[in-house]
Amino acid sequence: MATTVVNPLREGLRLARTPEPSTIVIFGGSGDLAQRKLLPALYNLALQRLLPAAFAVVGAARQPMTDDRFRAELRDAVARHSRTKPLNEEVWKSFAEHIHFVATPNDAAYDDLRRRLDDVDRELGTHANRLFYLATPPPAYAAIIEAIGAHGLRGETGWARVVVEKPFGRDLATAMKLTEIVHSVFREDEVFRIDHYLGKETVQNILVLRFANGIFEPVWNRQYVDHVQITVAESLGVEERAGYYEQAGAMRDIVQNHLLQLLALVAMEPPAAFDDRAVRDEKVKVLRALRPIRREEMAERAVRGQYDAGFIEGTRVVGYRQEPDVARTSSTETFVALKCFVDNWRWEGTPFYVRTGKRLPKRSTEIAIQFRIAPHRVFSREASAGLEPNALVLRIQPDEGISLKFGAKVPVQGIRIRSVNMDFVYGASFMVDAPDAYETLILDALRGDATLFTRRDEVEQQWTFVDPIIDAWSNAGAPPRYEAGSWGPAEADRIVERDGREWRKP
């Protein structure tokens, strides 16, 4: 009989694709996050056959509900929110058989949850491997973690991991306190602090673009890069999140996590390997190198704003203070712009301009690396009148892709130069739908791969940077107002205009 020789590298990749038998326990299982994101993501993983045969989902929430009712509600939610349509009835039927629900209205009910998990282990052979997902409001995190420990939900034989949604704390002190509570039940390597931006294809492609290509890394430094702009713009207002947003604001909601993570990925040094320890070590170095924004520098380096009434796509919208559940004297910021510096060998003196806001003209998240102009003008001023600086733009949403701006000759007699774009668009290039960020991150958590999750020291460094800014603003009165449909307050424009630059229009 002929012997089949298996390439060990390919075999390792194949084995890594499907997680071990396991149960995912979703606290807040009947809530908005579970129905809009988590269950559609799990369904799509089942559709792609990326879940193990021995797998279960157990939802936990306060109100009582039967398994059948829970499954029916989730079916409707998945049909509405799944990125793949229509619903594959055969796959859903098989997937739904593995979905259960346990009501947890009080502390004693966690014993019922433990018994149900033990039953699932025996019936399906999931070996007490359990992933706990906290899809609840942040104030509930500590109590749930403590209940997991007190009632023995971890199990005795398998692995246990916990996924914690952002924001992780409200400031450095509360983040450190929450970490203490989490570490009373889970080791740090069992804690997966999730930032869904890190699961987006273009965010991951930052690392591929830089470290899988020989042409970018040599110019990815202060010698060639004039500045970097990172924009996270939303056209929506606070919608139904006003209660949370009044307590958080744009700084805690977006800057402390999403924006600083994007900045770290752009600025980090090449990691020794693409694994959780090496990648996160390099990101932490960037966060530690962020130059603090001192109170006396606020006017030049930190701007906040709050949207007023205006027009979005021709429709009149109310101002933030007129939104339901928002205080009429609220000083919560809905816009933040910062001028950041990374004080290390690679980036010394290179500004990173970052901004985020609600009720801006369009929904757009992008990173723009603008290069220095050519050191010597060969062509006449008239010939190069239409020439702009070279820029590499990574579009993260809504249309994921990358574009490179460079100068080209206009096809006319004589020399006339105009800036043109070379575009790469995910959908057109690969002809497949990119996986949703939650699909990527849930699958990684089930595999135990924490590369795209934030570590304790990352979170603490992020709070160390933003806490002084929040503190300064807390005593500075109401933020400047900006009209809905504009790109923010005039003070934000002055941050870049003082340096002879201007914000890009995404």
Task: Describe, in plain words, how this protein is organized in 3D.
- The chain has a 9-stranded mixed beta sheet, with helices on both faces.
- By secondary structure, the chain is of the alpha/beta class.
- It has helices spanning 8-17, 32-47, 67-81, 89-96, 109-124, 141-150, 172-183, 201-211, 242-267, 276-289, 298-301, 426-430, 437-447, 456-474, 490-497, and strands at residues 22-27, 55-61, 99-103, 130-134, 160-165, 191-194, 225-233, 302-308, 310-312, 315-317, 335-341, 351-357, 364-371, 391-397, 401-409, 417-425, 481-483.
- The radius of gyration is 25 Å and the shape is globular.
- It starts with 7 loop residues before the first helix and ends in a 9-residue tail after the last helix.
- 37% of the residues lie in helices and 21% in strands.
- The longest helix has 26 residues, at 242-267.
Described by strand count, sense and barrel closure, the largest sheet is: 9 strands, mixed
Radius of gyration: 25 Å
N-end to C-end Cα span: 62 Å
Low-confidence stretches: 1-16
Count of runs of 4 or more consecutive helical residues: 15
Shape, principal axes of CA atoms: globular
Beta strand %:
15-25%
- The chain-level structural class is alpha/beta
Give the % helix: 25-40%
User: How many distinct beta strands?
Assistant: 17
Q: What is the topology?
A:
Layout: H1 8-17, E1 22-27, H2 32-47, E2 55-61, H3 67-81, H4 89-96, E3 99-103, H5 109-124, E4 130-134, H6 141-150, E5 160-165, H7 172-183, E6 191-194, H8 201-211, E7 225-233, H9 242-267, H10 276-289, H11 298-301, E8 302-308, E9 310-312, E10 315-317, E11 335-341, E12 351-357, E13 364-371, E14 391-397, E15 401-409, E16 417-425, H12 426-430, H13 437-447, H14 456-474, E17 481-483, H15 490-497
Parallel strand pairs: 1-2, 1-4, 2-3, 4-5, 5-6, 7-12, 8-17
Antiparallel strand pairs: 7-13, 8-11, 9-10, 11-12, 13-14, 14-15, 15-16
Helix pairs in contact: 2-3, 2-13, 7-14, 9-10, 9-14, 10-14
